[in-house]
């Protein structure tokens, strides 16, 4: 279920595009399809989305990923068993949001703050087959970098896992019926 959630989060966050005015807009999947079919490349507001693995610890010494970037961190899960293999858990997801800190006068800080707000708008109430509505529960700024703005937006949801549920498989069986017609 986490794989499906991760894939859907990436798809959802990829709907944030840069408008010609410089604003960040949440667009429909159909609009992105129209842009691509017109032979254009969408101007994604988020250039890289990946799984969190403490990527920022040595970011200033190593070559890095394109920014703005979002890394998805799945928190610890305490599974509750329901019935017949169904489980659920309260899930905390941290989105590590990184942008370049541009020199003053270039609106880098305002872009970063706008991106935080647009991500919240994009994900507030986001639901799927295996999770309930997303709700933001915390915002944690990190001030450990000179050239990078780094915030973690924390979301809560209820995750469902049916991977242990035994699925019933019905095999088609041809009918073995003999009929006789009798005259009365």
End-to-end separation in angstroms reads 63 Å
* Fraction of residues in helix: 10-25%
Q: What's the main sheet like?
A: 6 strands, mixed
How many alpha or pi helices?
3
What structural class do the secondary elements suggest? alpha+beta
In total, the number of strands is: 8
Poorly predicted runs are none
Mean pLDDT, to the nearest integer, reads: 87
Sequence of secondary-structure elements: HEEHEEEEHEE
Shape descriptor reads elongated
Radius of gyration: 23 Å
Strand content: 25-35%
Brief characterization of the structure:
With 184 residues, this protein is an alpha+beta fold. It has 3 helices and 8 strands. The relative contact order is 0.18.
Report on this structure.
With 184 residues, the chain is α+β, with helices and mostly antiparallel strands. Helix content is 20%, strand content 29%. The chain contains 3 helices and 8 strands; from the N terminus they run H-E-E-H-E-E-E-E-H-E-E. Strands 3, 4, 5, 6, 7 and 8 form a 6-stranded mixed beta sheet that branches. Strands 1-2 form a two-stranded antiparallel ribbon. Strand 5 and strand 6 (87-100) form a beta hairpin. The model has no long low-confidence stretch (mean pLDDT 87).
């Amino acid at each position: 279920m986490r794989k499906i959630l991760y894939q859907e989060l990436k798809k959802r966050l990829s709907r944030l595009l840069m408008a010609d005015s410089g604003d960040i807009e949440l667009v429909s999947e159909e609009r992105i399809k129209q842009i691509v079919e017109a032979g254009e490349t969408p101007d994604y507001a988020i250039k890289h989305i990946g799984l969190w693995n403490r990527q920022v610890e040595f970011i200033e010494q190593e070559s890095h990923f394109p920014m703005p970037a979002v890394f998805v961190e799945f928190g610890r899960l305490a599974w509750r068993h329901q019935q017949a293999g169904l489980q659920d858990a309260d899930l905390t997801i941290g989105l590590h949001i990184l942008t370049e800190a541009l020199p003053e006068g270039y609106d880098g800080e305002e872009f970063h703050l706008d991106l935080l707000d647009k991500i919240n708008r994009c994900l507030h109430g986001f639901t799927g087959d295996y999770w309930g509505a997303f709700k933001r529960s915390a915002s944690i700024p990190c001030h450990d970098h000179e050239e990078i703005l780094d915030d973690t937006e924390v979301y809560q949801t209820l995750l469902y896992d049916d991977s242990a549920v035994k699925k019933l498989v019905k095999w088609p069986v041809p009918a073995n019926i003999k009929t006789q017609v009798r005259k009365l």
